[in-house]
Amino acid sequence: MTEIKSTPEEMPILNLNTSGTSRYEASRFLDNPETISAYLAESMKAKDPELLMKALSEVAKAQGVNKVARDAGVNRESLYKSLKGGAKTRYDTIRKLMEAVGVELTVQPIATNSVDSGSSKQPRQAAKVASAKAAAKPKLVREGTTGKANNGQRAAKSTVASA
Questions:
Q1: 114 or 31: whose pLDDT is higher?
Q2: Distance CA 80, CA 104 (A)
Q3: Where is this region: Disordered (predicted)?
Q4: How far lies 110's CA from each of 9, 31, 105, 113, in Å?
């Protein structure tokens, strides 16, 4: 397949008539808890605090800013200030806002693409399994040797001891 290479100067300019269109506002579609939850979860995946605050702002618009402010226990001006972006909003405020819009923050393990058999276990559980495996391994104990044999091999007299 041949690849078409073009520069921005070669690209056509489209003059679209946008007079009959309106600006997209997510708040118009955030009409149930499942949609709101999915919308906020996706915004959190970006790991961008301003994007999360923009998403919370859209949810607040969808549910009514006055109602959300009242349910969160903050005044409307403080809510606007928190949601405007660029502000360092406290965790407590974000938690209150999320509860006010009907969602909660949850914690879950980070998904990994590891093929390791112990990766599906909880971190603490995996550590216990690893230490149990290490304890069950037999150790070589040297008897009456003064060092290693030639070529870095172990001396012939070794016994196995359990830990």
A1: 31
A2: 20
A3: 113-163
A4: 44, 29, 15, 10
